[in-house]
Design brief:
The complex is a heterodimer of chains A (about 180) and B (about 130).
Chain A (H helix, E strand, L loop, with lengths): L6 H13 L16 E11 H6 L13 E4 L5 E2 L1 E3 L8 H4 L6 E11 L2 E11 L5 E2 L2 H9 L7 H4 L1 H4 L1 H10 L12
Parallel strand pairs in A: 4-6
Antiparallel strand pairs in A: 1-2, 1-5, 2-3, 5-6, 6-7
Chain B lengths: L12 E10 L1 H6 L10 H9 L5 E4 L4 E6 L10 H4 L5 E11 L2 E12 L18
Parallel strand pairs in B: 3-5
Antiparallel strand pairs in B: 1-2, 1-4, 2-3, 4-5
Classes of the chains: A alpha+beta (about 180), B alpha+beta (about 130).
Chain lengths: ~180, ~130
């Protein structure tokens, strides 16, 4: 694992990975390990459903891990979307059990291939940027997604503030260890 | 629409896993230090943001958590957010699909809290605060 010791380098790197993708077009490189720019068709599905047969009708309503099941049987794990510190469930849930075209990046590391979805297109629909979590968060807080508070949702989310307040940024507040 | 997927289901392996609750995206993408206390806050951010939670096992394998304590509602789950960075011992069903380990946990055998004090050597990830 790469160790980053200089704050400026780390900040620039994270800016490139989390913020720039929101500004760019389809198939944009994030310079990930084993990165591959891809576009493919797949059915949005609940991963636990595929693996165990436990299949709620709505893919779990946004609370379960979602996958993209390709026609050749490959189950792709969309672990990340194009937003800052956000996943792809909110982007894919509206298309539960339907085929979409997904556009983004595979990253392969330690033999594990995961998918960062940047854009999604329903059948006979339009391309949509995969940043639904931030849009939903902004709406829930009476903001627009472009609002600075929404773009920095992770610094402003009430649940996060509550848990970090309890545990500390290092998670060691109960042991008297704080930054 | 759900019924056809039953055809893909396979027999899981019963396993006990000891490891650290992590954000698998930060770990697998390798763009920041992604374990221990230095990454604790970021791991909470990512779990709250809907990124699946993982466990980095003592066997150095990454397990994607599909179910925790028999609850499949794991995305953004407040209880799981509070477990980030903890060392846990869990038992459940392991499914391996396309080289990814998926773990449906039914029993949390033990929770040791955070034992990886990575902040001793690494600043708070990713911004330093």
């Amino acid at each position: 694992m790469m160790m980053i010791s200089k704050p400026v380098v780390a900040s620039l790197f994270v800016f490139a990975l989390f913020i720039l993708p929101n500004l760019a077009g389809a198939d944009d490189s994030w310079n990930l390990t084993g990165e591959e720019e891809v576009r493919f068709d797949a059915t949005v599905t609940d991963v636990l459903c595929v693996l165990s047969g436990d299949c709620p009708p709505d893919c779990g309503g946004g609370k379960r891990v979602l996958g993209l099941l390709k026609a050749d049987g490959e189950l792709v794990l969309p672990i990340k979307n194009g937003g800052p510190f956000t996943g792809a469930v909110a982007d894919l849930l509206p298309y539960c059990s339907t085929v979409v075209t997904a556009d983004g990046l595979f990253t392969i590391n330690w033999g594990v291939k995961t998918f960062a979805i940047q854009f999604v297109r329903p059948q006979e629909g339009k391309w949509q940027r995969a940043n639904q979590f931030v849009k939903d968060w902004a709406t829930a807080h009476g903001l627009e997604a472009k609002d600075k508070k929404a773009r920095r949702w992770f610094r402003n989310d009430e649940t996060i503030l509550e848990i970090v307040g309890e545990q500390g940024k290092l998670g060691l507040k109960d042991k008297g260890i704080e930054p | 629409m759900a019924a056809p997927f039953h055809a893909w289901a396979g027999q899981p392996e019963r396993v006990t896993v000891t490891g650290e609750v992590i954000d698998p995206w930060c770990y697998l993408s390798e763009f920041m230090w992604a374990t221990g206390s230095a990454h604790h806050q970021c791991a909470i951010w990512c779990a709250r943001g809907g990124i699946p939670v993982g466990i980095l096992g003592d066997d150095e394998q990454v397990y994607i958590v599909l179910q925790m304590d028999s609850d499949p509602d794991v995305i953004g789950h407040h209880g799981i957010l509070r477990m980030q960075s903890n060392e846990v011992v869990v038992e459940g069903d392991l499914y391996v699909r396309d080289n990814i380990n998926y773990l449906a946990i039914d029993t949390i055998i033990d929770d040791h809290g955070i034992v990886n004090y990575s902040h001793d050597e690494i600043e708070i990830q990713p911004f330093g605060d």
